[in-house]
Amino acid sequence: MVERNAVGSVRTTSGRGQLFESVLDTVGDTPCIRVNSLAPDHVRLYVKAEFFNPASSVKDRLALNVIEAAERDGTLKPGQTVVEATSGNTGIGLAMVCAAKGYPLVVTMAESFSIERRKLMRFLGAKVVLTPKEAKGFGMYQKAVELARANGWFLAHQFETAANADIHEYTTASEIVADFAGDRLDYWVTGYGTGGTITGVARVLRKERPETKIILSEPANAQLVGSGRGQERDSDHAPAVGHAAFEPHPIQGWTPDFIPYVLQEAIDKAFYDELIPVAGTEGIAWSRKLAQKEGILTGISGGATFAVAMKIAERAEPGSVLLCMLPDTGERYLSSPLFEGISEEMSGEELALSQSTPGFHMS
Q1: Over 80: is that where the pLDDT of 1 sits?
Q2: Do 138 and 178 reside in the same domain of the chain?
Q3: Would residue 353 count as lying in a domain?
């Protein structure tokens, strides 16, 4: 725990006051951090930094609860292989959980997602089966289903399982309520991938903080919820086909080419007060601003959520308090458009600095 002492003195830490038996015990309890330089002066804007989870994303929560819920109800047997379709973050979270618990893991992932994601999963011991980018999210999902059926593996079902939204109800929402106890919380802003975060947190906010307006976002060129078109589903609630409103977008982790069943509860129960689309280019721009002006490193999805939060902040009444979800870390996007233009080599200005003193400079 970092303690702020008198101005000019050195910050100190005193420890958490507890020891952890496993990396899995460190999932959750992520901080809400105030945005100082970028936020408008008339509001207080905070971000919930989910990259403080041990595998650096909000999906660590889902991954842990999916496995432990299956252990509790007996659908996951000791040593059984786990399989799941993922754009990366759920797969990385599952790889961490499966490594800690001793389960083999196979992940199916469309080839279009960032290379470092597949490397991280393999580094954690998982096998990664790539699917053609033309088949989109629905293709990687169907591949996972095929592999589970053919081999008797446990399919994690992140898009349908009740364990997904439940963990956000029990942890993420509880943390938000506790952190803002006795304070205003006028807006909570989030995007969606599986829909677990919006559904689980909204269950609690609607009851305990009914004054909080919930803002949902999705890619401007892939407005599945905004289209008003329903999702065709199989008898087990899985998507039967891809959604007609989907187009490829750069906000990895957001909006597969179907409306997940976990998200459907939030739609049916009107768990959000406003739906605001955002362009991928805005997500990239705001992610970079957060890094360079606040020292906060988040990915394109975090930048996109923050872009929407800034729009809300600009029009909010004076004194308003906003909380924005940041799903993951920017390091997960090194090979993506987020880092385009960020050179490995010295710029002219950097080279001039190097040559401005006589020693140790590059030619």
Answers
A1: no
A2: no
A3: no
Here the CATH number for the domain that contains residue 108 is 3.40.50.1100
Identity of the amino acid at 72: R
Cα separation values, 59 from 50, 63, 167, 262, 310, Å: 9, 6, 10, 14, 24
What mean pLDDT comes out for the span 226-251? 92
Sort strands 44-49 and 321-326 into parallel, antiparallel or unpaired: parallel
Which residues lie below 8 Å from residue 245, measured CB to CB, with a gap of 6+? 222, 223, 224, 226, 227, 229
222: Cβ–Cβ under 8 A, 6 or more apart, which residues? 245, 246, 247, 248, 249, 255, 257
Domain check: are 73 and 136 in the same one? yes
Phi, psi of 271 (to 5 degrees): -75, -5
What are the start-end ranges of the H helices in the chain? 59-73, 89-101, 115-123, 136-151, 162-167, 173-179, 196-208, 261-268, 280-289, 300-315, 348-355
Residue 301 is a catalytic residue? yes
Same domain, 77 and 36: no
- 41, part of any domain: yes
From 48, 56, 57, 59, the catalytic residue: 59
State yes or no: pLDDT of 3 exceeds 70.
Answer: no
pLDDT digits (tens, 9 = 90+) for 38-83: 999 999 999 999 999 999 999 999 999 999 999 999 999 999 999 9
**Facing residues of 49 across strands?**
326
Judge whether 127 counts as a catalytic residue.
no
- pLDDT, tens digit (0-9, with 9 covering 90-100), for 121-136: 999 999 999 999 888 8
Catalytic residue among 57, 112, 301, 320, which?
A: 301
- Quickly state the pLDDT bin for 5 (edges 50, 70, 90): low
Q: What is this structure's pTM?
A: 0.93
Average pLDDT, the chain: 94
